[in-house]
Amino acid sequence: MQSTFRFSSALLGSLFFTLTSTVCSSQSADNAPPITVADQTSFDDNSDTGPVLRGRSRGNGAREGGRSRGGGGSDEGPTVLDRQFIEGKLPRGVRYVSDVLFKEVDGLELKLDLLLPAKSELEKTPVAVWIHGGAWMRGNKARDLRRFDQLVARVLRRGVAFVSIEYRLSGQATFPAQVVDCNDAIAFLHRNRDQYNLDVGSLILMGSSAGGHLATLVGVTHAKGIPGFSSGYDSSDVHIMGVVDFYGPIDLLKLQGKRDAVDLSSDRSPEARLLGHSPRLRPESARLASPSTHIDPESPPFLIFHGDQDKRVPLDQSELLLSLLQKHGVQSRLVIVEGAVHGDEKFDETSYNDAVLTFMDSLLRESPAK
Predict the structure, then answer these.
(1) Considering the domain boundaries, does residue 209 fall inside one?
(2) 103 to each of 129, 167, 181, how far by Cα in Å?
(3) What CATH number did the domain enclosing 313 receive?
(4) Where is this region: Disordered (predicted)?
(5) How far is the CA of 270 from the CAs of 65, 72, 170, 278, 325, in angstroms?
(6) Strands 332-337 and 302-307, how do they pair?
(7) CA–CA distance from 295 to each of 52, 76, 363 (Å)?
């Protein structure tokens, strides 16, 4: 492994440094061919922000075990995990609590799944909340757990609960309903923290693609009390320690500007479906829905992942996120995965999961004692 380190002058901790490197799995032969993954049709990816790491994966040995993949596109797969996945992919002793109703709205039931690590019932568990991708118009709470099965298992082995939540899709409600739903799921976890032994003072948001957008937006606005973003619960009781963003959109106006000529009156892009109109028809609404609008020195630390071959959400979206966070002195790191397209399975390889776990460990060490 050859690495070149460039330490940033920004106010970052020792973990958050500028790094350019070629990353190979310790389990892979040096001459193994790079993995080739076909581009996918769904609009959901993940990205991380901060000092920049460039990584190139080699060989199938970069993963711990095989992959269990859910459906994609129009075939989303089942909304709960099957026994084969639980017994074959998850650590022994994990408690799986599925389809927990956290909200009813407009005749819809919104649910979440909890994966609880094997721990003492007297010990409060830090929480990672996952928000699924799918262009805000598809996907479900179980699909991403299958796509990121290695990451899920390793987070659980760290003694951290993994919670995957639903939200209203753009065909069911327009923005900001999705942000309200995510905040209501967090409020539910706070109200039921004793039942599930959760430490909601140690909460990390994670998500891919559209879910990365929502995780980022909730992360940078959660404590601000923005009208229309929550149902009114006291967010001061919940501390969002950090955000792991996999290739999420950051600026909806700039994202649409990357598309070919758009008829604003008939715009059917994912961001137009989210907002209920083309972003350029009502730019103030698009700015409100863009995480880039809300970043300030109080934003939580970020780890961002993005593929340099992503054509659906261009890499410059995550580069913008990184630059804004660094401008405000927020701990942040961006991992650029070379050769990776949107939704690429490379993002669940060991080397990138290592970065997530290192990030989580650093946040948990800094968490105030409860």
Answers:
(1) yes
(2) 16, 10, 8
(3) 3.40.50.1820
(4) 27-80, 266-293
(5) 34, 16, 8, 10, 25
(6) parallel
(7) 19, 33, 19
- Quick one: three-class SS letters along 277-311? CCCCCCHHHHHHCCHHHCCCCCCCCEEEEEECCCC
Q: Which of 42-46, 115-119, 300-304, 310-314 has the highest mean pLDDT?
A: 300-304
DSSP label of 137: T
Statement: residue 2 has pLDDT above 50: no
Contacts 24+ apart (CB under 8 A), 366-369: 366/241, 367/126, 367/201, 367/202, 367/239, 367/241, 368/201
Torsion, Cα of 260, 342, 210, 41 (10° steps): 70
The model's pTM is 0.81
pLDDT on residue 92: 93
Whether 261 maps to a domain, the answer reads no
DSSP-derived 3-state class of residue 51: strand
pLDDT in tens, 126-175: 999 999 999 999 999 999 999 999 999 999 999 999 999 999 999 999 99
Which residue's structure tokens are 């994609």?
72
**Is the Cβ–Cβ distance between 217 and 294 less than 8 Å?**
yes
Phi, psi of 121 (to 5 degrees): -65, -15
Identify which of 343, 336, 339, 308 has the alpha carbon closest to the alpha carbon of residue 322.
336
Mean of pLDDT values over 215-225: 96
Q: Is the dihedral of CA 344, 350, 351, 352 positive or negative?
A: positive
How far is Cα 88 from Cα 257, in angstroms, rounded to an integer? Answer: 44
Q: Provide the domain count of the chain.
A: 1
Is the peptide bond prior to 176 cis by the omega test (within 30 degrees of 0)?
Answer: yes
| 1: enclosing H helix or E strand | none
DSSP output for 7-38: --SSS--TTS-EEEE----TTS-TTPPBP---
Categorize the per-residue pLDDT at 259 as very low, low, confident or very high, splitting at 50, 70 and 90.
low
- The answer to whether the beta carbons of residues 67 and 89 sit under 8 Å apart is no
pLDDT of residue 314: 95
Asked if residue 308 belongs to a domain, the reply is yes
- Asked if residue 362 belongs to a domain, the reply is yes
